[in-house]
Fold this protein.
Amino acid sequence: MMQKTLRLAAVAAVAVVAMVALATRGVNAQGKVDVTGKWQLTVESAAGTGTPTVTLKQDGEKLSGHYSSQTLGEADFTGSVKGMAITFSFNADAGGTALAVTYTGTIEGKDAMKGKVSLGELGDGTWTAKRL
């Protein structure tokens, strides 16, 4: 009986260590997330589906970068990273229509993010991102 209890305790301890390891994946030595790098987005909205790329540069909670897509063109942007939350926005021109574009989301690990996008007059959508 004692051996069975010890075995169960050992299995539980291993499970806890594995969960902590997965939860902290994508976090640097200081306990901060760093999204600096190039990312491929998949955006789905009523206006259609697109696969823009973003290049992000993170400095503490400050975020800057460059957005590139066939639909909305090229744009520099600013934003923030607070904990696991990310947001960035920019102005774009979609076929002569000026749009205020805002991405909000969560960092799902060192190589994945997801969230919602507001495309101004074109409505809202969802997005996922993978680090390239």
